[in-house]
Design goal:
With 180 residues, this protein is α+β, with helices and mostly antiparallel strands. It has one domain (2-178): Gcn5-related N-acetyltransferase (GNAT) (Aminopeptidase, 3-Layer(aba) Sandwich). Helix content is 33%, strand content 32%. The protein contains 6 helices and 8 strands. It has an 8-stranded mixed beta sheet with strand order 1-2-3-4-5-6-8-7, sandwiched between helices. Helix 1 (18-25) crosses helix 3 (42-55). The protein starts with a strand and ends with a helix. The relative contact order is 0.15. It binds coenzyme A. The site of coenzyme A (COA) has 20 residues, from helix 2, strand 5, helix 4 and helix 5.
């Protein structure tokens, strides 16, 4: 899979991404906001990367000019909604690249991919309620706020977080496309 953007592209992960994947995943400003522990070693990064190569649900976000991995974006079944045509989006970016519009571009590309290349009928996304950056990305990409679940999850570090959820239906996506 390869999706072409202006500043970033999205493509399949490769094992040769490992060095860049570790660099991004050990960043203490990234994982905790998405609910995962920063990778303490390259060996752990390698194991997580191998798991993602097998599951094929996570893709690399790479810079268009160098093809360097700077983040990841996943399309998966979260199981929160009990309907098998709902897909969930999850994403994270190395903090060195924040606030340049990269994730907004990546999410726009994945919305098109989900509705045009898979059988997805509803796309959902969520964030820890205090994650204002992620909230802003979802708003900019046209998601609708569905609601907030209190005490949604206990994280690896013992924090219990509330989470806010958003969705977009295929019908809404197609309607928006007509007016673009
Ligand atoms: C959330 C994340 C993916 C955003 O990526 P990004 O490429 O910086 O996003 P963009 O540049 O496309 O948009 C960020 C928006 O957040 C806004 N923002 C940044 N810091 C903010 C803050 N503290 N409060 C409110 N808004 C903020 C920016 O101004 C921008 O909005 P604007 O275009 O209206 O100015 C990135 O911060 C990240 O990886 N964080 C850690 C992991 C994570 O939170 N993943 C998502 C889990 S749901």
């Amino acid at each position: 899979m390869k999706l072409i953007g202006k500043q970033i592209n999205i493509r399949d992960l490769r094992y040769s991404d490992l060095d860049a994947y570790f660099e991004y995943g050990k960043d203490p400003n990234v994982g905790p906001f998405a609910g995962w522990k920063p990778f303490p070693t390259k060996d752990i990064a390698s194991r997580v990367l191998n798991g993602q190569l097998v599951s094929k649900e996570t893709f690399a976000i790479v810079l268009t000019d160098t093809d360097k991995l700077i983040g990841t974006i996943s399309l998966y079944n979260s199981g929160i909604r009990k309907y098998n045509k709902v897909k969930s989006l999850g994403f994270s970016l190395s903090s060195a690249y924040w606030n340049r519009g990269y994730m907004t571009e990546a999410v726009h590309l994945m919305i098109g991919y989900a509705f045009e290349k898979t059988d997805c009928e509803v796309l959902e996304a969520g964030h820890h309620t205090d994650n204002y950056r992620c909230k802003r990305v979802l708003e900019k990409c046209g998601f609708n706020y569905d609601g907030t679940l209190c005490s949604f999850k206990k994280l690896y570090d013992g924090r219990i977080v509330d989470a806010s959820f958003y969705s977009m239906t295929k019908i809404e996506y197609e309607r928006k496309k007509e007016y673009e």
